[in-house]
Write a structure and sequence with these properties.
Elements (H helix, E strand, L loop, with lengths): L4 H10 L13 H11 L5 H9 L4 E2 L2 E2 L22 E2 L2 E6 L6 E5 L13 E4 L6 E5 L2 H12 L8 H7 L5 E2 L5 E2 L5 H7 L2 H4 L3 E6 L4 E6 L8 E5 L7 H4 L1 E4 L2 H7 L5
Helix pairs in contact: 1-4
Amino acid sequence: MRPDLTLLRELVEDAPELGRKPARPVPEAQIRATETRLGVALPPSYRWWLAEFGRGLIHGAEIATTVPPEFAGDTYEAVDAPWRRTADRLCFLSAPDCGDEYRFALDRTGDAGSGEFPVVRRDGLDGEEHPEAESFAGFLAVHTARSRGLGDGPNPAVARLWRSTPGVLLDDGVLVYGPHSIRERNETFEVARYAPAWVLIGDDSGGGGLFMRRHGRDRTRVYRLGLGAIGEDVEQAGEPVTDDLIGWLEGAGAAG
């Protein structure tokens, strides 16, 4: 799924764990020059990050950025520094003290037409590679979720969504929460008290909430229920919406 850049901005501005410093937006011409040197188009959500913020800190390390042409190849933080490119991998974050590396998998394509590259983690101890996210935006969402004690997400469907985008906002007002807002929304409506087996994953901007199970076999189905009518039996009281969260959102026209 294409990253939702509106919600990505909300996540970045709400997440001190991303270590965002005073913004230093990177000019478009500088980004294009870097892409020319690399011989590859940078993923859209990473380009957005560069154009809006330019820098940040995760796992004690700087997120790679771009530099003016005169400094190309000589700056450690530059994403086109020679050491960052290894065949079909491009490292944008390297934890200190021989820690893990996070890389764009240039030989893999994300969702059709999105221009995103999946993110893989290279273990700093054994060198093994592991899937991390489906986009740079998803990488930021996954990091935020884990740092807030949310794990990968409240259930597999939401976890899969967050690996691509920190939530989705549709034109009709339907909002599926990202890791920066889901806990606050569940606390506001006391979901853990009134429907402990369920999690509020979003709302329709009209008083209706979107609910999914936290546990059990049926953690794919989404139900709509009024936020003033939350109770333990969401399945009986609510209206079935879909059993394919991401397919439903894509079909409804979710776009970044």
